[in-house]
Design brief:
With about 200 residues, this protein is an alpha/beta fold. It has one domain (about 1-185): Vaccinia Virus protein VP39 (Rossmann fold, 3-Layer(aba) Sandwich), CATH 3.40.50. It is built from 8 helices and 7 strands, in the order H-H-H-E-H-E-H-E-H-E-H-E-H-E-E. Strands 3-2-1-4-5-7-6 form a 7-stranded mixed β-sheet. Helix 7 (about 125-140) links the parallel strand 4 and strand 5. The protein is globular, with a radius of gyration of 16 Å.
Length: about 200
Amino acid sequence: MEIVNFIKQYIKNPKTVGAVAPSSEKLADRMVEDINFLNATCIIEYGPGTGIFTEKILNKKKDSTIFIAIECNLDFYKILKDKFKDETNFILINDSAENIKEYLDKYNIDKVDYIISGLPFASLPDTMSQTILSVTKEILKAKGEFITFQYTLFKMNLFRKYFDKIKRKKVLLNLPPAYILRCKNVKFINYFNKDNWS
């Protein structure tokens, strides 16, 4: 049923949905495998869609960790609201990721540990992408990470405008295959610990 809903939304909104099928279990596992759930106090997800990453995060996070998911598609929002209605410290918002700071202010949250994104930056308007990435950089903690996946590396230069270091890995078991990008700024990170960062 989820894949049918996803296809319908892709047909209606190809620029903001960005894929004809939900992300695979393998991609979801790889997206969250580097999150330090023990120490994270606040996690944000942009564009959760039907909630495959959302579910992984909810299953792994501490009860005390605040988890905010922001979804602009009303149909997906309704699916998520029903699916995760009983979760602890889970805030679901129907809005654009461009406006996430307004909600952090509303809930008295200053900075966040991780931002997970399913947004299709390759198809979003440039001004929207730049606004989202600028706000993302602003609200992340000094050692925070922005973790996104993309189907091509077309927007790497855009991501590099906002993040000093980007580590990437490819997941073949997804339709289509995807690149996961772990993005951070290393200003306050030990420069001698640079393994696999490029």
